[in-house]
């Protein structure tokens, strides 16, 4: 799975979690400021991403995921 495919799937997951259209989710979209996610939403988002891609993201890395790009970067980093 290449980065483009990963990004498309991550955007779908974010849009579903944020209850918005996937077209609103851009690479630099801030999960909290733009989409209104709180810390619990972000934890649930990371759990959904982990489940979708069959990976485990350490908590200290996950808490730094504040944009769509950050989430995609984590999947790329931990999907081996």
Percent strand: under 5%
Calculate the terminal CA-CA distance, rounded to whole Å. 10 Å
State the share of residues found in helices, binned by percent. Answer: 55-70%
Query: Any idea what the radius of gyration is?
Result: 11 Å
Question: Major sheet, described briefly?
Answer: none
Q: Which structural class do you get from the secondary structure elements?
A: mainly alpha
User: Uncertain segments of ≥5 residues (pLDDT<50)?
Assistant: none
Number of helices: 4
User: What characteristic shape results from the CA principal axes?
Assistant: globular
Topology order in helix (H) and strand (E) letters: HHHH
Q: What is the residue-averaged pLDDT? A: 96
Q: How is this structure best described in words?
A:
This protein has 80 residues and is mainly α. Helices cover 57% and strands 0% of the residues. Helix 1 (3-18) crosses helix 2 (39-53) and helix 1 (3-18) crosses helix 4 (68-78).
């Amino acid at each position: 799975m290449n980065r483009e495919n990963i990004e498309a799937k991550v955007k779908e997951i974010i849009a579903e979690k944020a209850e918005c259209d996937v077209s609103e989710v851009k690479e630099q979209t801030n999960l909290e400021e733009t989409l209104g996610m709180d810390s619990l939403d972000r934890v649930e988002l990371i759990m959904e991403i982990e489940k979708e891609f069959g990976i485990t993201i350490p908590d200290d890395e996950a808490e730094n995921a504040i944009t769509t790009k950050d989430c995609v970067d984590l999947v790329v980093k931990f999907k081996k």
